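Example for tutorial group B:
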């Protein structure tokens, strides 16, 4: 069992509500991006978080720049 590494990315985001840079873990499950975040007690769908602007993401296979 376990989650394949290609389904997980560390995402560096700009938190527009706190005016800070922050890191979260995005896990892709059945086409949905779920966010594990030290600031939340629960797993949250990425679409439900509107105050994070992704900057870039990384995992063990590569990195991705997110354009605004």
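The residue assignment follows.
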């Amino acid at each position: 069992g376990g989650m394949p590494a290609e389904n997980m990315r560390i995402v560096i985001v700009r938190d527009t509500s706190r005016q800070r840079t922050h890191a979260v873990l995005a896990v892709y499950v059945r086409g949905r991006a779920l966010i594990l975040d030290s600031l939340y007690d629960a797993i949250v769908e990425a679409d439900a978080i509107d105050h994070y602007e992704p900057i870039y993401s990384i995992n063990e296979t590569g990195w991705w720049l997110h354009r605004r």
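The first strand starts at residue 8 and ends at 15. Compare this with the pattern of hydrophobic and polar residues in the output above.
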